[in-house]
Amino acid sequence: MFGFGKSKKATTDEGKIDELLTRGVSEVIEKDSLKKRLLSGDVLRIKLGIDPTSPNLHLGRSVPLLKLRDFQELGHKIVFIVGDATGVIGDTSDKESERPMLTEEDVENNAKTYFEQAGKILDLNEVEKKHNSEWLNNLSYSEIGEQANQFSLAEFIARENIKKRLDSGKRVSLREVLYPLMQGYDSVAVRADVEIGGTDQRFNLLSGRTMQNYYKQEPQNILTTNLIEGIDGRKMSSSWGNTINLNDEPNDMYGKIMKIDDSLIEKYFIHTTRISSSEIKEHIEKGPREAKSALSYEIVKMYWGEGAADSAEKSFVNTFSEGGVPDDVRKVGAKKDNLLSEVFLKHEVVSSKNEFSRLIKSGAIKNMANNEKIDDIKAVVGGGGIFKVGKKKFIEVSSL
Fold first, then answer.
1. Is the peptide bond before 348 cis (omega within 30 degrees of 0)?
2. Does residue 311 share a domain with residue 336?
């Protein structure tokens, strides 16, 4: 979907480099040094690692991935690391409590399609694809001890979230202390010139510089990207279930983006798209509703194509603005005496009978044929119909 030119020298267009170093960027360490290297035309090795703590990459992850794409389009070498070893240990940089350890099996299952998902943004043919278990799992206690000697405990516990946990009496495991060492050694293993990460990763990113210095490599430059909020206004995170996933179906993706707070529209345009600042300004000037529609359309188009974006927009307008039923409503069959709760549960319209009961009690299930709410938790399929469940789910049930 995205095109990249091949060149032995990187592009040195100063305007593009300035855009690269500022759009969606919180901090660059060290900016003058990095800009000088970019203007030289030397091909740099740009590193990003993502731990597979869930099966889906989301728009929050797209922010550094798009920054990788910016570097790639200038002709630099991208190194994308799936953190299968670090994922087991767990990074608590953004957590207020200890992150539970994952099993190797959990991490492996989560990571199955990570490269494929990243390929929605990057040209994978030009990417070095790595798993950090390749080098981390081969380290000896002696080597880990040497690495740990480069850091003090005081540096680790001075971090704001760790200090808060200690001050409140919450547990901080020795396992958590290992994580920055592991991420730092990743930079040594791939000889990174630049590492990208969110603002919550600052300590881990700096550890890469420390580790490279110890191994007599040139310390990497660092570029931190801003974090974005999810559909509930908190930081987008799989653990909070507020994500817009890159693999979400077009209609779901469009609908989720339409749910974000109006105050986030411009931030989303800047961080999760690559349309120009003048285009963003034009959209914002049209008001929140029009701007959010344009944003939703643009993001769906990025990941699913223009046809899917057209269809998602039409479906959203028909369903939510005009009170209609989407064209692609799911159709299932069931016997007349089957309980609706069981049909909805079987087809994952609801996650549990308790959820079905809550929806019934709140009047959130409606038969669109007569526009009447279902008020009986023991309601059966009967003659069937198209049912609206909550604000955006539809299912057509035909009686057998």
1. no
2. no
